[in-house]
């Protein structure tokens, strides 16, 4: 009963916006963010009361099976964003700007961000990098597109960084990251993802900013946390980075369930009589969607 009441309350709440997230920081309420790439998972996250749903370019690795995020295109991102938009009602939908969609020119970057909002249904866009994107952030916020920043380990720069490594350990690097964070806030970002940075640095950045920080591998002192849904559900047991906690082991359950299904099909135990129709039975009305395959 309590779980059902919680779901009903989450559905009844007003949609979360960029100003809502800033208010959550001021109120000391932690922000819960999770990635999603389809309508079904998006609906479940929304029902669970997640505050931010991110359509990350991590879809390149999670959905496409690539080694990094660099191959993800704008059209692919829009496709997944549109699907996720159909599933969320309350959660704030943020969509990553893929590699090379905001690095060529200001005009092209604005156009691409506009497509994520207009075609993908994004409530905000996320881009990686620091002060060099200040002009773009200012322009997007000026025309009404909220921007979330991303500092620390920036996956789109993985080749320049030499791999997926913790950032900001050296004093000079830590100061540069703090300076970038302040510059992005000044330019107009409403929130900032901090990925794979030392806890002490994340705490310092969080304290220095008026906007919320959302950590991933950045310790518990950020204003919120984000994880890839497939990671927290344990859908790929081969992938176990230090910053991920498994809240379920669904990969094992999926293999088991599909194995049982296969066994029943091969033994001709499925489908049983209750899973079909016969001529003698009275016709039943079809569901709205009809059979799905």
Task: Describe the protein's architecture and organization.
The protein has helices spanning 2-12, 18-27, 39-47, 59-62, 74-87, 106-118, 134-142, 158-161, 171-187, 199-208, 229-232, 250-266, and strands at 31-35, 52-55, 92-96, 124-126, 147-152, 191-195, 213-216, 224-227. The chain has 293 residues and is an alpha/beta fold. It has one domain: Phosphoenolpyruvate-binding domains (TIM Barrel). An 8-stranded parallel barrel has the order 1-2-3-4-5-6-7-8, surrounded by 7 helices. Helix 3 packs across helix 5 and helix 9 (171-187) runs parallel beside helix 10. The chain starts with a helix and ends in a 27-residue tail after the last helix.
List keywords for this structure.
globular, 12 helices, TIM Barrel, alpha/beta, 293 residues, 12% strand, eight-stranded parallel beta barrel, 8 strands
Protein topology:
Elements: H1 2-12, H2 18-27, E1 31-35, H3 39-47, E2 52-55, H4 59-62, H5 74-87, E3 92-96, H6 106-118, E4 124-126, H7 134-142, E5 147-152, H8 158-161, H9 171-187, E6 191-195, H10 199-208, E7 213-216, E8 224-227, H11 229-232, H12 250-266
Parallel strand pairs: 1-2, 1-8, 2-3, 3-4, 4-5, 5-6, 6-7, 7-8
